[in-house]
């Protein structure tokens, strides 16, 4: 089948700058046939994206990107073909959403103690009802003239070990994979090249990881070759995408990573086989 794909995209329902409908429109303009909306700890934009996709001929695979942590290392687990209405997933994302708000509020309080004029209400307004994150705090800091750019905000205040940093709520990879499986989805490790911890992959496979993101904007030829080999070694599905968050923060642009259509068809085939067998993942409590 023809048509380009992008299986890693974000919208205003997490930390992207385009609405779910705008993401789909941009995908259509870029000539994409299949995309997945994989907002951080949120599936709120999936149904509106799918509705928009039907109007312009773009298939939208329901997705999510869950935050996880192992051995003090943050990892992101992509979920594909998830049932966005499944109670386990809904409860998990509600907890993430509440914890994100509390984290942002703590960061704002730290900034205020440093004399930086940022209000929590401004941060919520920037999030526009989506999952609140550090980029929204950074945007307000730029808006208030505290810093010149979001990058500066992270470098001076919001990044790890910086004065306004607050740890975020995370599941273990075992729990994140379990939630995705309970919702009938496939769990794939996002952008492994960014972690520099390939030694963790074997453990994730033991936790029943289904796939790995081989193609990503930050993966060069060496990383692509390495993770392709790792996928073959462990029998993992392969995926890929631009990880586009929109244009305003200098993030990669939608559709810039050439992802084979075969990747999504392999995901679809595995998902269909599990669903037909009634084994979309043994439910595991969070």
**Fraction of helical residues:** 40-55%
Overall 3D geometry? globular
Biggest sheet overview: 7 strands, mixed
End-to-end separation:
38 Å
Q: Would you tell me the structural class of the helices and strands?
A: alpha/beta
Q: What's the average pLDDT?
A: 91
Number of helices: 10
Using only C-alpha atoms, the radius of gyration works out to 18 Å
Numbering strands along the chain, what is their spatial order in the largest sheet? Answer: 1-2-3-4-5-6-7
Low-confidence stretches: 280-286
Tally of extended strands? 7
User: In sequence order, what are the helices and strands, one letter per element?
Assistant: EHEHEEHHHHHEHEHEH
Please tell me about this protein's structure.
The chain is of the alpha/beta class. The chain contains ten helices and seven strands. It has helices at 20-29, 46-56, 87-113, 120-127, 134-143, 150-158, 173-182, 201-206, 221-234, 261-277, and strands at residues 4-9, 32-37, 59-70, 73-80, 186-189, 211-216, 237-241. A seven-stranded mixed sheet has the order 1-2-3-4-5-6-7. α2 (46-56) links the parallel β2 (32-37) and β3 (59-70). The model is unreliable at 280-286 (pLDDT under 50).
């Amino acid at each position: 089948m023809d048509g380009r794909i992008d299986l890693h995209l974000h919208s205003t329902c997490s930390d992207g700058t385009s609405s779910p409908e705008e993401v789909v429109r941009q995908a259509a303009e870029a000539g994409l046939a299949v995309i997945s909306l994989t907002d951080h700890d949120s599936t709120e934009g999936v149904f509106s994206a799918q509705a928009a996709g039907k109007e312009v001929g773009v298939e939208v695979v329901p997705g999510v990107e869950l935050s996880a942590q192992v051995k003090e290392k943050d990892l992101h687990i992509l979920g594909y073909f998830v049932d966005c209405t499944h109670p386990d997933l809904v409860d998990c994302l509600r907890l993430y959403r509440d914890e994100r708000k509390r984290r942002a509020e703590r960061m704002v309080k730290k900034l205020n103690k440093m004399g930086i004029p940022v209000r929590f209400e401004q941060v919520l307004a920037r999030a526009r009802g989506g999952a609140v994150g550090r980029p929204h705090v950074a945007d307000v800091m730029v808006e208030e003239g505290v810093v010149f750019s979001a990058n500066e905000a992270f470098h001076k205040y919001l990044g790890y070990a910086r004065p306004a940093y607050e740890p975020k709520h995370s599941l273990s990879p075992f729990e994140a994979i379990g939630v995705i499986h309970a919702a009938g989805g496939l769990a794939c490790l996002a952008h492994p090249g960014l972690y520099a911890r390939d030694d963790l992959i074997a453990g994730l496979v033991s936790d029943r990881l289904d796939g790995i993101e081989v193609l990503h904007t930050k993966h060069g030829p060496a990383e692509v070759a390495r993770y392709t080999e790792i996928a073959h070694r462990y029998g993992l599905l392969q995926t890929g995408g631009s990880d586009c968050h929109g244009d305003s923060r200098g993030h990669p642009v939608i559709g810039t990573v050439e992802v084979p259509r075969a990747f999504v068809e392999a995901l679809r085939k595995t998902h269909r086989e599990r669903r037909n067998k009634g084994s979309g993942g043994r439910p595991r409590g969070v």
